[in-house]
Design goal:
hpI Integrase, Chain A; DNA polymerase, domain 1; 3-stranded antiparallel beta sheet; single chain; mainly alpha; about 450 residues
Length: about 450
């Protein structure tokens, strides 16, 4: 079964995938992608005589997930679509609640199960705590995961990328799987040998319509170019459908820092209802993100013996396993001392020397840090929230605005290339131009 490129009006009217996508959270490309996933589900429901969401049962939703797994969709996609359906029916229930006197509506996707969960020991990223926190860990070979999309050989392709980093190999494999699944959704094609240049062009148009950035499109093309070159080189395919396909030029993006007042509000917005150890930990994490400009990975890999109280500095492990010493502010040093005094309340055998721990005593992960910041941004009233790297951008931009030289900022941030640091001079120039336009009568 595949979904035609043009969806019938009945799907739009009955299931309202576009309205669901527009009303959701997240980036535009993510929301549109969820809408496409609902379209595919709705088209499948029509083949089962379920012409509207209120006719969809929990058994039918589970049957759809089973269909995806049986057809060969990747384990990541199956779980992702299960999550999208849970969100979709929650939205449906909120949008069209039961009438007075009727039974309350129940989310038919609430108890969905997948045949092969992402929690599989072989599908989990492997490696040390530092590798996991830095996102540089690989996965073991899993027979179930590797059997999906077998004719596309995603596992063999990933293994062939010997000169690429773990992250690149994983990303290219995922890009290939997404392309193969798009073909399965939109065309009758299931074999890579049948792919033509026109299919690639249609896929790129789909990415553009979905709001994908030029950087995303460029990486997808790079992954497919690698893949089909690999197939042609191995004699599995006579022609390369990427011949003549041009890669769009990725647009440079300037950092988007917070203003000084907002940054301080976020950093000081500690949850008053939290336990004392949690308040101390969150305060220290936020102070390091903005006060010292640390990366999330550097927060997660920071060790207890890396804090020097006398010199008011921390020793961090940056990109490329490079170590640097970064000074900390007085509020940050105070917060770190408070946290170290309470750290023993959550320490376990799994804690090791990790500076920051979760409530279960495990080293803090990137996602844990993001949750801490999300919570603080919400309390500070920051509409739309923010992300950890925005505080790093803010740190550098505010230093630049206050007269710090580029070389010093480069050292503090741990940039190996001065050109990376020079982005912040552009941010300050933009601020200067904005002030000029607002203040000068001839601007």
């Amino acid at each position: 079964m595949y979904v035609p490129a043009k969806q019938s009006k009945s799907i739009d009217d009955a299931f309202a995938p576009g309205k669901f996508a527009r009303g959701g959270r997240g980036a535009e490309a993510t929301r549109r992608h969820r809408g496409h996933e609902v379209v595919h589900f709705a088209a499948w429901c029509l083949t089962k005589a379920a012409k509207s969401p209120d006719r969809v049962t929990s058994e039918l939703v589970q049957s759809y997930i089973d269909y995806l797994e049986g057809t060969g969709y990747s384990t990541e996609t199956v779980e992702q679509r299960a999550t999208t359906l849970r969100m979709y029916f929650e939205w449906q229930i909120r949008s069209t609640p039961a009438k007075r006197g009727d039974l309350a509506r129940v989310n038919p996707a609430r108890k969905l199960t997948t045949g092969h969960a992402r929690a599989c020991d072989k599908c989990k990223p492997q490696g040390s705590a530092q590798a996991l926190s830095r996102g540089t860990s690989a996965k073991k070979s899993c027979d179930v995961r590797d059997s999906r999309l077998a004719q596309w050989e995603p596992s063999d392709f990933e293994v062939s990328l010997t000169s690429a980093s773990v992250n690149t190999r994983s990303a290219y494999r995922r890009d290939l799987e997404l392309f193969a699944e798009w073909l399965m959704d939109m065309t009758p094609i299931a074999d890579p040998g049948d792919v033509e240049r026109e299919h690639v062009r249609l896929y790129l148009a789909h990415l553009h319509d979905s709001g994908a950035s030029s950087r995303t499109v460029a990486r997808r093309i790079a992954a497919l170019r690698k893949y089909f070159t690999w197939r042609v080189r191995n004699g599995e395919q006579a022609h390369d459908p990427l011949m003549g396909i041009h890669t769009p030029q990725a647009k440079g993006r300037l950092p988007r820092p917070l203003d000084e007042r907002t940054a301080v509000d976020v950093v000081t917005a500690v949850n008053p209802a939290a336990q004392e150890w949690e308040k101390a930990r969150d305060s220290a994490v936020l102070e390091l993100l903005y006060g010292s400009g640390l990366r999330v990975s550097e927060i997660c890999t920071l060790q207890t013996d890396g804090f020097d109280k006398k010199s008011a500095s921390v020793r961090v492990l940056g990109k490329g396993s490079k170590t640097r010493i970064v000074p900390v502010s007085k509020p940050c040093a105070t917060a770190l001392m408070a946290w170290l005094g309470l750290r023993g309340e959550v320490t376990t055998s799994a804690s090791g020397k990790a500076m920051f721990l979760s409530g279960r005593g495990k080293p803090l992960t990137r996602r844990d840090v993001a949750r801490v910041l999300d919570s603080a941004a919400e309390r500070a009233g920051l509409a739309g929230g923010t992300h950890p790297h925005a505080l790093r951008h803010s740190f550098a931009t505010h230093l630049m605005d206050s007269g710090a030289d580029t070389r010093s900022i480069q050292e503090l941030l741990g940039h190996s290339d001065a050109a990376t640091t020079q982005r912040y001079t552009h941010v300050s120039k933009e601020k200067l131009r904005s002030s000029y336009v607002e203040a000068h009568p001839r601007a």
